[in-house]
Design a protein that fits this description.
- The structure is a single chain.
- This protein has two domains: 279 residues, Zn peptidases (Aminopeptidase), CATH 3.40.630.10; 186 residues, Alpha-Beta Plaits (2-Layer Sandwich), CATH 3.30.70.
- It contains nine helices and 26 strands.
- With 476 residues, the protein is α+β, with helices and mostly antiparallel strands.
Length: 476
């Protein structure tokens, strides 16, 4: 088949299947597939919501003519067998972060608005996952019609725990062969060839909050997950409402027994993309400090939170600022705060370049914690990942993207962490178009009103199909 004929068939295919594809996205978005290990059971290690979405994803794959497999509930995959058992793979995920607050539409349904799909997971990553299945379905129909198999097996891996620890992929790689090449449609176009390290930890205050006679802060709560900038945070404090001044972005309401609930409304977003966000915990902490709504011991921890959540995201206030030529600058954010047994627990998320390592970050944050009468614990580390952009697969994908967009693109690195870092030979490839101009009501991934344009998804599907056809021509 000539290139021109392939592209004509791809155009016709996308037009034909689009409404079915959107309905399959909707069927997945309707499932609140947030990890809940407290409800884990045999065959559903990440909880019932995550398992339901995994099962639904495999059901769609089977309906589209692929050979679907559930790997004991940890993860799944669907194959279009090729002449060779070597695999070209896609990997996307059906789990999502919690919905959080601030939505203007139902987060667990797909709302179509002015050419956009809105709902939790339409961009990260249920929408792109469905694209990967329909890309494989294009080839399945071709094989069924001609009887000629693809040179390599095409495998669509169905992730189920990407948003937390990626232990689903650890399980998969312990039981399945490594693909010859894989890409994940869980990031930005044009192509991501490297990912910063991902560092998670938590600061734990002294046992003083809400317990001593001079304590002013009864409890504090903010954020939904550690890897997102919180758009909402609140504190219950001992104070009189009439004595507290109003402040932009903060809502003050009277509580029982001379208490006030203070709620900060910020602008949330993904921890790897902190530009343009406003950390609600930082807003709340700054108000508490400015109004003296803390004891001396509480002030120490609030000042630590101020450095983390209110003084930018370059790590300078924490003593870990750095950058390198390949990955750019380090970023760090405060994700969640909770009152736990009289202590405040404040999480942090850093995306770091190769100019620093996790041991150096740990030492700096332990010293910072000690200086404020607190302690620090490491929750998890994923080290930086990089693939040479001159490899044939990367050149192939970039060339296909450029043909469909009329651009001249370069691979780049990100602060986010995708499945690509777990493979020997892989990258992250769309479908989000970061340069796309979008209406003001379009929300980020991990934030309220998450949305993606249908036009960009349709084009991404075409890019994926043609890219896979070309990857099949590379000698592995």
């Amino acid at each position: 088949m000539s290139e021109e004929e392939l592209k004509r068939r791809v155009d016709a295919y996308v037009d034909e299947v689009w409404e079915d594809l959107v309905e399959d996205i909707r069927s997945l978005v309707k499932i609140r597939s947030v990890e809940d290990k407290s409800q884990a059971a045999p065959g559903m290690p990440w909880g019932p919501g995550s398992h339901e979405a995994l099962a639904r994803g495999l059901e769609i794959a089977s309906r589209l003519g692929l050979e679907a497999h559930d790997c004991e509930g940890y993860i799944g995959y669907a194959d279009l067998p090729g002449v060779s058992e070597k695999q070209i793979a896609t990997i996307a995920h059906t789990d999502v972060v919690p919905e959080g607050l601030g939505w203007t539409v139902d987060p667990f349904d797909v709302t179509r608005r002015e050419g956009y799909l809105m709902g939790r997971g339409v961009l990260d990553d249920k929408g792109p996952f469905v694209l990967s299945l329909y890309a494989a379905h294009f080839f399945q129909r071709q094989v069924a019609a001609t009887g000629r198999r693809l040179p390599y097996t095409l495998r669509c891996i169905v992730g189920s725990e990407e948003e937390t620890n990626m232990e689903d992929l650890d399980y998969y790689l312990a039981h399945q062969p490594m693909p010859a090449f894989a890409f994940t449609p869980d990031a930005d176009f044009p192509l991501i060839c490297g990912e910063k390290g991902v560092y998670h930890g938590r600061f734990i205050s002294a046992d003083v909050f809400g317990t001593s006679a001079e304590s002013r802060i009864i409890e504090m709560d903010g954020g939904t997950v550690a890897n997102a900038i919180p758009g909402l945070a609140s504190a219950l404090v001992r104070a009189k409402l009439e004595e507290l001044p109003a402040c932009e972005g903060l809502e003050l309401t009277e509580g029982p027994d001379d208490t006030v609930c203070i709620t900060a409304h910020g602008r949330g977003g993904h921890a790897s993309l902190p530009e343009g966000t406003k950390n609600a915990i930082g807003m709340l902490v700054d108000y508490l400090l400015a109004q003296g709504l803390c004891s001396p011991a509480e002030r120490e921890f609030l000042q630590l939170q101020h450095a983390l959540c209110a003084l930018g995201h370059d790590g300078r206030a924490l003593g870990i600022a750095c950058a390198d030529e390949r990955f750019g600058p380090l970023t760090v954010i405060g994700g969640t705060v909770r009152s736990v047994d009289g202590r405040l627990v404040q999480t942090c998320d850093s995306r770091y370049p190769s100019a620093i390592d996790d041991a150096q970050i740990t030492r700096a944050l332990e010293e910072l914690a000690a200086a404020h009468g607190a302690r620090f614990e490491v929750d998890g580390v994923k080290r930086p990942f990089y693939i040479d952009p001159e490899t044939p697969e990367i050149r192939c994908l970039l060339a296909t993207y450029d043909e469909y967009t009329g651009r001249s693109s370069q691979a780049f690195v990100i602060g986010g962490g995708t499945y690509a870092r777990k493979f020997e030979r892989a990258c992250a490839f769309g479908p989000h178009e970061p340069a796309e101009e979008v209406p003001s009501w379009v929300g980020f991934e991990h934030g309220a009103d998450e949305a993606v344009s249908e036009e960009s998804l349709r084009r991404a599907l075409k890019i994926y199909i043609v890219s896979i056809a070309r990857l099949m021509e590379i000698d592995y």
